[in-house]
Amino acid sequence: MTRMSPRRSVQDALLTKERIVDAGVALASSDGLGGVSIGSLADALAMSKAGVIGPFGSKSDLQGAVLARASAMFTEAVIMPAMAEPAGLPRLRKVINRWTSYLADCPFPNGCFITAVSCELDAHEGPLREQLVETVTRWRSFLRDQVVAGRKAGDIPKEVDPDDAVHTLVGLSMAANQEIQLLGDQGAARRARRLMLAAVRAGASG
């Protein structure tokens, strides 16, 4: 009998875990995090329920892994490409361009995953909501840091309040997400980009 090496066994376990999380993201993007059940994933992956829950220990931990993966996808698509730009306005402009493009061509059927999950979890206390709050807080802090850096560099006028700017940027993104997903507005992403840039007095072009 051929015995599997411990290293290969660990690799296979990690691949299985990633496969389950990927399937969970796909399911949550259409049915919400509440729709990520052990049974539904077992059916989708042709696995046993024990095989699905085993790598995570609980349904809540599995849902948390799904939320973390969706957040990582956003980071990879929007934030990471902008990190090559200097902090402040150059980085913020890149983020706004990537962010609005992400909304226009979103990998999730219901649009922005975080926006959809925020509506789902805002009235439900628990670890998933706490994880979401931490995720959203980090994102907003990142945006605020860029506005502050832009003000210090003189690229963003001093009268632009960082907290007001973040509020406006996030609000415009949520409005654009609704316009794209619910109203089918093909110009929503371009409009959001223009208004976001105007909010930080960065000009009207992307």
Structure classification: mainly alpha
What fold name goes in the CATH topology slot of the domain at 59-199? Answer: Tetracycline Repressor, domain 2
User: Whole-Å distance between the termini?
Assistant: 62 Å
CATH homology group of the domain at 59-199? Tetracycline Repressor, domain 2
Low-confidence region ranges: none
Q: N-to-C SSE series?
A: HHHHHHHHH
Query: How much is the radius of gyration in Å?
Result: 20 Å
The number of helical runs is 9
Strand tally: 0
| CATH architecture annotation name of the domain at 59-199 | Orthogonal Bundle
SSE layout and pairing:
Blueprint: H1 6-31, H2 38-45, H3 49-53, H4 59-79, H5 89-104, H6 113-121, H7 127-153, H8 162-181, H9 188-199
Helix pairs in contact: 1-4, 4-5, 4-7, 5-7, 5-8, 5-9, 6-7, 7-8, 8-9
Index terms:
mainly alpha; 206 residues; 9 helices; single chain; Tetracycline Repressor, domain 2
